[in-house]
Specification:
Radius of gyration of chain A: 23 Å
Number of strands of chain A: 19
Largest interface: A-B, 82 and 82 residues
Oligomer: homodimer
Shape of chain A: globular
Structural class of chain A: alpha/beta
Helix content of chain A: 25-40%
């Protein structure tokens, strides 16, 4: 019941940006029938849109890639935080969905996810309570998280003993970290010591091992291969020793890694030979919409390794209007830091639709967004192909996560920019 | 009715970050009775909190400042996009609220704002329709916007004639821009030509003049004084010529400027002598919570001009937990780019609360956030005063706008971090 409400919510209402001003809220399943078209001006700009064809292609290609590699996909749900997209990923064949914290994972289970992996440490009592209650609400579902320190384990045990009634030991994965990286055990010795303490704890059950390489990828084959080889070698060594010492408490062991940058290097290394069956779990999340910048560059490097083109297409755009052309070479757009990613680079003009027209064209190559304020983008251009006040510009994004978190809903559009569906987000 | 619903909404529900996992949604007016305390761990982290005492002081000080200067306050609502804070600003004496676009202004009118100034160009038919409908829904309310080009005027006139039934001419202000700045007429000649065309248009009525200096402030007295003097001199000259030519169509004229950086320089220049009464309107928005970085520095410069301390205090913090201390000198916090501003600088550790304790202390001066990922902050520290897993850190922010837009609700807390109220946002 709750899952259905989360998958088919009411969208719109006062203050809902991009929503037609006079339109009442509409259930997701009814939005296509509204007959709205983005380029005809039926919706106020700025507006984030997902191209349905590109989205469908990305879901298919990535799932097939995982299948071909013999690993499972548990895409990182923090990218989109959208029940509609979790559902699409699961229908495409994903084994589960990854999350960054308990609030996110609880939303996942509430919206129909049955295997939720929190790729993060959990230690606060209120969050541990939240995991227990969510598992009680969703019998048979799994909700796993990471451990990387004895200090964390001590907090969990203190919570467990204070609570008294935790129904089962919680499932955890041991995180192996990179020196100079984020979280995760830096040494083999610490990892083993922690695994042994988990084995002797009644609060937790060790069911696998995890690492994360994505943020340290360079987009250069040699360095990235060495990074993945070194990290996954450490993962394998810890996993083997845990296996030898019988520290795992599961019939099937999980080995998980994988951001969205170099997952082709990671996937073949997720199934070390252990005494029990191993399920390799890839967590890439950004493939779902891909992008026009950061991941486009990483995938170009991946193409040289795959020996064939990858199958991902940029699916997410933010449309804005030219509100002013106040100086030669400068146009001001009605979208800013509240609407589109700026943490890696400025948005990339991808489409240009003249005022009064409904058919976009490629913008001239000179067009660049030089900066953004909260609500404005500064579009710079050379020469004759000047945008006019009232023109619309489709901005490509880099990267997806920090564009998704700026929208409570997004329109899903076909190739004519007819609104054929919608998604909502929870940030 | 609608205003009451927007001011006293249900807060919480699945996926609502910072909301207690098992708590049902609660009406704003009922939240204080829950008895929640942030430092006791009643709410999951990360959580954005507003200190009630600092907020109340900021509302009072800024309104008194405007009063002392003989100008009105129409604080920029885009900072917070929170009906509860608009209401608090109006109750403190604000003349109106400023917005960045039609969606925002419509939310303002729906939540009880009676004078809404869109400090931006509006030109799309759907947005112009949205203004007309909103004015019809709220008889007697005002909703003004800016014009800065003949191209914009032509679009508005085309809309007006196509629509046929617009009830009244829409009220606009002429925007004067800075060379190398954002929108606004760059030349006296263009401004006058546009004002004359507005005078002859049945679609629009010119009721004042506007500029914006805030983004170009340097925090250095000499340069900032010259900037404001030059820009407001141009505004005054255009206003006088429009007045001489009887291009204004109002009994009272509006002259508006003012970001949150150097409003003390702006305020005394907002009342040029014209043939009709002039209402100076200051639009500063960030004063409402102030901050720990960007505006703190600007206000230090303002103090040297005011000759006394300003009365603003940083009211907004984002609390996170230490989830891992994986290397000497590095702690990983459970808050990231989705939770706290990073567009001007990284967040500033402002409070430290040990695990198991509920009384915060000042963190050691060596503590710095060096970077953030989507969901994590990297806290660097020297020496002995190391944070422990389970400790909580209150992050000060810089600047407010890009922290507000990361939260759908925020807790309002007293000095003990008891939750005494809440606000919601619409981004």
């Amino acid at each position: 019941m709750q899952a259905q409400a989360l998958l088919n919510p009411l969208i719109g209402g006062p203050g809902s940006k991009g929503w037609p001003h006079q339109a009442a809220p509409v259930r997701r399943s009814d939005i296509a029938a509204k007959g709205w078209n983005v380029l005809r001006g039926d919706l106020p700009l700025p507006l984030a849109v997902i191209r349905q064809d590109a989205l469908a292609g990305n879901l298919r290609w990535m799932q097939q890639f995982a299948r071909d590699q013999g690993v499972e996909l548990a895409p990182h749900g923090k990218t989109t935080m959208s029940p509609q997209l979790f559902d699409a990923q699961l229908r495409a064949g994903a084994w589960g969905i990854t999350f960054a914290n308990v609030t996110q994972a609880r939303l996942g289970l509430a919206s129909g996810v049955r295997r939720a992996l929190i790729a993060n440490q959990v230690a606060a009592a209120t969050d541990l309570d939240g995991i227990v209650e969510s598992l009680l609400d969703h019998p048979g579902a799994r909700l796993l998280f990471l451990v990387d320190s004895l200090a964390q384990l001590e907090l969990i045990e203190a919570w467990f003993h204070a609570r008294g009634d935790a129904p089962v030991a919680l499932e955890v994965l041991l995180e192996i970290g990179l020196e100079g990286g984020r979280s995760g055990c830096r040494s083999h010795g610490l990892a083993l010591a922690l695994a042994r303490r988990v084995r002797s704890s009644v609060a937790l059950r060790l069911v696998g091992i995890e690492c994360y390489e994505g943020l340290w990828a360079k987009g250069r084959n040699g360095e990235d291969s060495a990074l993945v080889q070194g990290l996954l070698q450490r993962v394998t060594e810890v996993a083997r020793e845990c296996d030898d010492e019988q520290l795992f408490q599961a019939d099937e062991l999980l080995v998980s890694a994988g951001g969205s940058a170099i997952f082709d290097l990671v996937a073949p290394r997720l199934k070390p030979a252990l005494s029990k069956p191993v399920r390799g779990v890839l967590r890439s999340g950004c493939y779902v919409t891909h992008d026009h910048g950061n991941y486009k560059r990483y995938m170009a490097a991946m193409d040289t390794r795959l020996g064939c083109g990858h199958g991902l297409q940029a699916a997410l755009q933010v449309w804005a209007m030219v509100q002013s052309v106040p100086e030669p070479g400068l146009a001001i757009l009605t979208a800013g830091k509240r609407d589109v990613s700026y943490d890696i680079e400025m948005p990339i003009p991808a489409e240009w639709c003249w005022r009064g027209q409904a058919k976009p064209q490629a913008p001239p190559p000179s067009w660049k967004v030089s900066t953004m304020n909260d609500q404005h983008a500064y579009l710079r251009f050379d020469g004759d192909a000047a945008p006019q006040v009232g023109d619309r510009v489709g901005l490509g994004i880099s990267h997806p996560c920090t564009t998704f978190d700026k929208w409570r809903w997004m329109a899903v559009v076909d190739e004519h920019y007819d609104v054929v569906d919608a998604i909502v987000t929870y940030f």
